Amino acid sequence: MERVMVDCAVTRSETGEVGGVLLTKQVCDIWDKIWAFQAKPDDLLIATYTKAGTTWTQEIVDMIQCDGDIEKCKRATTFDRQPFIEWVREKPHILGVEQAEAMPSPRTMKTHLAVHLVPPSFWEQNCKMIYVARNGKDNLVSYYHFYRMNQRMPEPGTWEEFFEKFITGKVLWGSWYDHVKGWWEAKDHHRILYLFYEDIKENPKREIQKIMQFLEKELEKDVLDKIIHYTQFEVMKSNPMANYTYVPPEIMDQTISPFMRKGIVGDWKNHFTVAQNERFDSEYRQKMAGTSLTFRMEL
């Protein structure tokens, strides 16, 4: 995969490009290692665009795999239970890809990579993947606040500036449109369970049962009820193994915005101006033309 390094006037992370997608310079520097990662047939990959319900899905999956054992799910942070394959953690210096390599099988990992950047071994080994998509308006808002609080991200600029960056795909992990559409098309050819954030919010029981079926797990009703309870937003928000409060404030400043902020559908209405909403809708119609993929912007 071709790597193109570009200079960006940022005060936080420098950025580069891999395959036309904006990534941090640290990720670009180790891209060869990421691309060469060797998946195994029993690996599970959780994939999302950033701030689309990733941690939520990780916790649901882990609870299913642990048969609803709360204490077992608190054995380590989300970051350590399910390695973030393309990320580089600086203090201590840990490569997500090396963390995954050191894990015993069966392994569960996470990624925000666009479908064309997923290491080829995942496709070669016919791995199961769970993809969660969130409507673009709420995703934009959540991502803006994440950019603000995460000091490892590039400078977000003003809300107006970030809005433009997002709809033109000039944010880390690239275009939301390309991301959700790419994975949507891939699901017809690979073992991908494609879920929607809004559906999980509306009916967690139904969507968690889909995940259980995909993972070939049968659990008693009381275990399912326990999973539904412990993966509610308010419960997870107070779970130190999932809420990223273990990350030093100089990296994630939760006084600027909590990592788990609102977890609702429709918060975009509190941020978008009328003109921004019209602009987004216009871009959306153009970029989503020709796909069967549809989103609900409110419940």
Structure summarized in a few sentences:
With 299 residues, the chain is α/β, with parallel strands linked by helices. The protein has one domain: P-loop containing nucleotide triphosphate hydrolases (Rossmann fold), CATH 3.40.50.
Key terms:
single chain, 299 residues, alpha/beta, Rossmann fold, 4-stranded parallel beta sheet, 3-stranded antiparallel beta sheet, 40% helix, 12% strand, globular, Sulfotransferase_dom, Sulfotransferase
Q: How would you characterize the overall build of this protein?
A:
There is one protein chain. The chain is of the alpha/beta class and 299 residues long. The chain has a single domain, classed as P-loop containing nucleotide triphosphate hydrolases (Rossmann fold, 3-Layer(aba) Sandwich), CATH 3.40.50.300. It is 40% helix and 12% strand. The chain has 15 helices and nine strands. The strands form three sheets. Strands 7-4-8-9 form a four-stranded parallel sheet, with helices on both faces. The longest helix is centred in the middle third of the chain and has 14 residues, at 136-149.
SSE order and pairing:
Blueprint lengths: L2 E3 L9 E4 L2 E4 H5 L1 H5 L8 E5 L5 H12 L4 H4 L4 H4 L6 E2 L4 E2 H6 L6 E4 L8 H5 L3 E6 L2 H14 L9 H9 L8 H11 L5 E5 H6 L1 H11 L6 H10 L2 H5 L36 H14 L12
Parallel strand pairs: 4-7, 4-8, 8-9
Antiparallel strand pairs: 1-2, 2-3, 5-6
Helix pairs in contact: 12-13
* Main sheet properties: 4 strands, parallel
Assign the CATH topology: Rossmann fold
In CATH, the architecture is 3-Layer(aba) Sandwich
Number of discrete helical segments: 15
CATH superfamily, by name, is: P-loop containing nucleotide triphosphate hydrolases
Q: How much helix is in the residues?
A: 40-55%
On the 0 to 100 scale, the average pLDDT is 90
Give me the side-by-side strand order of the main sheet: 7-4-8-9
**SS-derived structural category:** alpha/beta
Strand content: 5-15%
* Quaternary organization: single chain
Q: What's the CATH class, please? A: Alpha Beta
Cα separation of the termini: 40 Å
* Number of separate domains: 1
What shape does the CA trace take? globular
| Total count of strands | 9
Q: What would you report as the Rg, rounded to the nearest angstrom?
A: 18 Å
**Unreliable sequence segments:** 4-11
